Fold these 2 entries.
Entry 1:
Amino acid sequence: MDFIKEIAAVVAKAADLDISEVENLIEIPKPGMGDYAFPCFKLAKVMKKAPQVIASEIAEKIEKPEFVEKINVLNAYINFYVNKTVFVENVLKKVSEKGSKYIGSDIGNGKTIVIDYSSPNIAKPFHIGHLRSTAIGNSLYKIYKALGYNVVGINHLGDWGTQFGKLIVAYKLWGNKEAVEKDDIKELSRIYVKFHEEAEKNPSLNDEARSWLVKMQEGDKEAIDLWKWFCDISMKEFNRIYKRLNIRFDSYAGESFYNDKMQAVVDELREKNLLTESQGAQIVDLEKYNMPPCLILRSDGGTLYPTRDIAAAFYRKKTYNFDKCIYVTALDQNLHFAQWFKVIELMGYDWAKDLVHTPFGLVSLGDGKLSTRKGHVVLMEDILNMSVEKTKNIIEEKNPNLENKDEIAEEVGIGAIIFEDLFNSRIKNVVFDFDRMLNFDGETGPYAQYTHARACSIIKRAGVDVDENIDYSLLNDEASFNVCKVINEFPDKLAEAADKNEPYIIARQIIEVCKAFNKFYNENNILNSEDNVKNARLKLVFAVRNVLRDGLDLLGVSAPEQM
Ligand code: ARG
């Protein structure tokens, strides 16, 4: 039973309105104001009456369904109080019947979503800026999957472009094989930084770099071998991080993959009269749309970041026939995406509207307590290690006898980072504060994981399977009822999260479930109650455990059974 739909049906009938229109208006009020509320403000305009009057008139005509205990009118609202036993029974049965499919649905069946996320640049360190794209993209991937979509996760690696010309020059001048093999990306970024310092004094280095890029484009063996080697070294590091984050991609087609697919884009743009020359370069003029021009070809014929993105979009449309293609990057790439989305539109493709840029705010370290080995960029791996280390200390203090301490510290330390990243709307800046995000009593990953582990431990200690013969009237206390309410809201939250591309909606609902459950746990004895009470309460614990486990998974946070 879907309570909102049922209530919408009786209101619609009484008010002579459309069910879906009513359904959209129904709210979940603050505690004490009923379980569902129908506000009449919007109707006042059409009906030309005071909203309070409308509320009373509709309420009088409503035929109270069985599951509704009480209806009252408060100002412009019609408030519905559901029968707690019926409600609790409904929710808990739904969770156990649907199992791991409870939060999800099949509204996405037959539709394809492509998500482009993480996408770090080869030969540059994986820094905390990439964390956000990785965590948000991975969560969106899981959110759409849970809704039945066919999802394709793409890591659009930054593996082509001028930086490789520079790197080759730098390597030939100041690098050596042993040092790179020993220190991999760190050594590559050291010589890359040195290149920039030296090129300021000696600009001819830039010409050399450009000629190496041309060699790469022409397939010169030495250039290509070096480039491949740099890529392999970087991928080794990236994969180590992805493994720890438990993330994989369906495709690693990076920028270089489009080398042979860009000429067609250039030709088509020219054919459609969209290219103009400007200072020797080929551009698409976007002045009419209040944007600077989109650069397609440099004066030396080299392609650019937007050219590769346009070629990639065509390839993805052809290969996956997506309904939506989502790009998860920092806010500072807004203009880049707006520009080339426009170019696709100007080329006459109506699927330009299905390209979605999903930007996010900055990430930083608040208190400056963290210093990195090199002092400049904050490396992702350092952050992971630091969080895991601190978690280990907490475990050592709180639960020194825990088995698999290292494993759990890894899951909790990393989970804390991901959870913190996803807890606010994307666009907000994230400031990492380890004390806050590792607080087991805060609105944090460890708190959610701990609550899940608590549910697991109760189930383990009970040592019984769920009894299907349950007297649900034993669960009509306020605390039990509230747990079921937040569980019941979860599937709608999933749909909302996908609608807005906002994983925080899931993160917040997880915290709601945890708070409600911990209140229930503090108020109710579970294992030492009489059998029928114990069974009923255990049924609720099972539901909480499942919802937390599956909810955390939607964020890419693991849910250890003990901690
Ligand atoms: N490599 C880019 C960066 O690190 C992000 C790429 C995002 N995806 C894209 N299709 N442009 O900034």
Entry 2:
Amino acid sequence: MPKVHYVTHDGSRHEIDVAIGESVMRGAVDNDIPGIDADCGGQCACATCHVFVDPAWFEKTGERTEMEEMMLEFADATDENSRLACQIDMTEQLDGLVVRMPESQH
Ligand code: FES
């Protein structure tokens, strides 16, 4: 199963298996990784699953949707590598993906 490396704002790393087709948000929530609240349950309606995708991986995660862009405006301290974790679905190509959680989510 492909792995995601979740890095919390304090630098703790969590290496988690995430099934293909599952979202990066679900991988964190199902494994009690702090820093991703996912208040809306993955509906792209809360922005509490904001992550910074490692720049080396950003393109592989695909394009942000228009809705995701809108929701990111409500997140704190976004940058060019910001994504909503519920909008990234795992693929074989994302094995080893690194995402960092913002300090505002912990
Ligand atoms: Fe709400 Fe991702 S879980 S926007």
